[in-house]
Batch of 2 targets.
Target 1
Amino acid sequence: MKKPIAISDSANFYVSAERIFDPTLKNVPVIVLSNNDGCAVARSDEAKALGIKMGEPLHLIRDKVAAHGIRVFSSNYTLYGDISKRIVEVYEDFTPNVEIYSIDECFLDFTGFKDRTAHARALRSEVLKRIGVPVRVGIASSKTLAKCANDVAKKNPIFAGVLDMMDETLADLILPMVPVGDIWGVGRQTQKKLHGVGIYTAADLRGMPLRQARTVGTVVLERTVLELQGEPCLSFDEVEPQRKGMAVTRSAGTPMTDFDTLFQAITAHATRAAEKLRRHGLVAGTLTVFYHTNRHRQDRPQYSGSRSTRLMPMSSDTFDLVNAARRCAQAAWPKGKVGSFGFTKAGVLLDDLVRFEDRPRTLFDVARPKSAALMSALDRVNDRFGKKTMVLASERMKRPWQLRADHRSPRYTTRLSDLPVVR
Amino acid sequence: MPVHRVERPVVANGFQMRLVTMPVSAGFPSPAGDDLEDEIDPMAWVVRHPASTFWWRVEGDCLWDVGIRDGDIIAVDRAGKKRLGRAVLAVVEGAVTAKILRKRGDQYYLAPANSNEQFPDIELTEDSEIWGVIAGVVRRYDLA
């Protein structure tokens, strides 16, 4: 007996989230920009119809934006995260088993529900009613097939947002119409290779001999073929592997030219990384700092610097990480023509992460009994009174390097000062 | 029966449960044990459905008679039942408004609740939408 897996997601999720609180966005073209207001990462159907492409840089579409009155938003991840969390809460009323795949996609275990289509319709209308975001549901016996069903449901209004492909005759009908490049896990390169051997549709790929699949595109493609045959290879609730490394990097709103400004940004990133470590109960063994100029501005002097250092002993202490980051940043700082470089990106990478309990002890461990208490006090203050209530002085209070987000909507759901207003 | 020390907060339905800090003796039950109660949480009393409740700030006094004033913060529940006589948030011609849902004959309309000032009734058309039902109101007064 095959287990039904559903995937529910929202088309243009960021746009839908913006529309909850601003009814003037209904039926008009809307785009949401990536971090630092670079390019379009979400487009309403109306914006798609105007030919705005995914990932198109804002500066290339300014004319279109002005001519058609396209509404432009910076990404408001605080809002999207809150809405996403609320949607998951609704899903939890419909299945005991929810696996969050991304901010707008969840796999749902639909085992045991008799009329799956009716169940999915009910879920869809509840999310729309309670949160105000339209979602589509695809159901099948493997994750890849469910993704495919979800895609089809999204593109064809006849399905009214729900497609159950557990029925094999229905799958036989639909798969020949799905281009192989639309299948989850089939990238552009693989698609090219598949076309080369005469495989154009999802149905073709489903019928591909496994051995051939492995030679054309490694085990990953072989697994995709099995998944298309309804043989689940990606289990439900696949355990997240233990984190080996983490990164905190940001682009700067205005280029940073002096060391102090750059180091403010790096302090902030190292601070954030230390907080993340402590939240996961980890310590890091290696820290890397990097920064570079804007590579797309070849007319400007280019420089990129990066240094790594061991953390001895391994640590999650903000002061340790910031000190290590300072040494790295200084070591990588360009000699000579100082001030002529405009750094637009800086980041801190941590590697060699282990759980605090498993950290190796060194002979020369300095006993710092107060460090843990200080860090937990710091975290508690920032949890309670808001992020960045207490920061290291080297981060400063003014943050000229901070991201550009000129068109961000209010944090409607998470800030008292940003609540939507009804008159 | 073995007794285990509870070292982390107990979570039920997403809420942290308060633990009784008093040690439990196996002998005579403490006469005070029955009097321990949860901390008062008026927000939980107002917010019946956390996922579907959103907070809005009110500007204007068109719902004065039902106790909603300029500057108040209201909880709006999208899962609330849209019954006649209830205060609702509605989207009319692209604007959001807070009014009382009423019906005259076959026609639904949005009515103000303020006997001191004149606000017009608004007819609900096919394009209007009830955004949610007002679940409660929070107000604070100056202390200084």
Target 2
Amino acid sequence: MEKAVTKKTLVRKLSGFVPLYLMMIPGLLYLFINNYLPMTGLVVAFKNYNARKGIFGSDFVGFKNFEYLFKTSDGWVITRNTILYNFAFIVINTVLAVIVAILLSELTSKVRTRFYQSIILLPFLISSVIVSYLVFAFLSAENGFLNNTILAALGIEPVAWYNEPKYWPFILIIVSAWKSVGYSCIIYLATIIGIDRGYYEAAELEGAGKLKQIWYITLPLLKPVIILLTMLALGRIFYSDFGLFYQVPQNQGALYPTTNTIDTYVYRGLLQLGNISMSAAAGLYQSVVGFILVMGSNLLVRRLDKDSAIF
Amino acid sequence: MSKETKVFQFTAHCIMTILSVLALIPIVLLAVSSFTDNDYLLKNGYSFFPGKLSTGAYTYLLQEGEAIARAYGISFFVTIAGTVLSIIITTLLSYPLARADLPGRNVFSFFVFFTLLFNGGLVPTYLMYTGVFGIKNSIWALIIPGLLLNAYNVLLVRSYFVTGVPTEILEAARIDGASEFATFRRIALPMAKPIVATIALFVGIAYWNDWNNGYIYLTTRTDLFSIQNLLNRMIQNIQFLTSNSAASNNIQEGLAKIPSATVRMAIAVTGILPIVIVYPFIQSNFVKGITLGGVKG
């Protein structure tokens, strides 16, 4: 008797939530299709994919695809490129973003602060296809601004930029900084603005100049945020900005040694070379190592500052 | 103002001015190039101060611009439809997740959250969408894969509902006899306007700038190309033509009629233009959105 009553109230209680569950259906369904279903498709990495047999019908080959990926130099090159580029981006973009944020916060004219901020943020909104056009205007071998104007003025022979892999680490680092410093300085700026002005007033009374104030007040108070954002970025070090690495070097084969990352490798394997199993193997390698790194960095962040951890 | 402060202010302004110029320079070069005479450009290269200006590229675009107008239309359609759909789905999912009393709330939250940690990646996603859902070469390819719903946005909106929409107000509405859906639509959603606006902005820009989906899924239906896809095809095609020009004089001749170098830049300008036009209006909201998202990862 008692059981029946609780069951009835449970049903009544749940039925009140039916509209809420219904509201969630489109979103949950989308995540199921867009994110969860493809996870099952990861088995392709262990198969010799055959379009006729489909994902689940293709022959199982175990770790052959992975073996092959690392037997050729491909696996190492793409891992090295992905990690080194991300590492360079983290260091350089963070240093620049912190400097810009400090400068912006110290300017007394708020109108001009906003003006500068708007301008350096603008590149962030431009698609990587258009960024590739902008870079092309500078680097095109025949018509580029660098070859025709700068190098010509200096009396240096024109450079075939799109055939010379050795220049691309610098080019990509510059493009990445151009695109993202305006974005990443915003969080630092918000933190600096939140600092109690009393610290600075006290320092001024003690006779500390601007540079001393920055060194002894702003930077130490900014440190936790810098560490935090760096940790989170390190967690994503196995993923690269596909648009940057694919569009900006314009998919030039000569540049692969210094521009190929895991993401571009997976893409080319799938759509240009038709090597679906290898491509899937590289993708799974990225997903798994990426997952471990995200978890690891989050664990560290949690230790430092519980509220800032993603979970 | 002390002397040191003055020197500091001056130096800071100088550095920021230089950085602002550096940020704008590539865009200026693009714009100036699009207004340069094509022959002059081919001879002297892209330049900030071309000897000969011309609107030839734009007249060419206006005359032969059917494909471009079409791509523009597709881009606008996809951006608006995608953003509206995305906002509907995102808020509908976030609202119940914000309700502390919802049975199974943690399970659903984890279901959403886990997609941020692990994903199948490009290959299985591509195989599913093309093989199972047949999305290839349809307009859905530009709207659905990847962009429609982002777990991160769901979590942002959810926390806004939790902190910004008091439970008492929702309770009161329900006591007055409003249904769950009416409470959501008439009370919770209007109160969440700031976060909805911010997310719409980010989603909208992502749709406008997306070239990836079209590049992957539109293999034969080039008539569905967005402006980004068109631009992408143009840079490849002209390159292809010039690299093979020695082999074929016909291509050389055909190419000579198009102000190819400047037209390319002119289309890129039209691709940036909508962003530059709306930028002053969205800028402050955009900055707010970054701060909001940045503090938490």
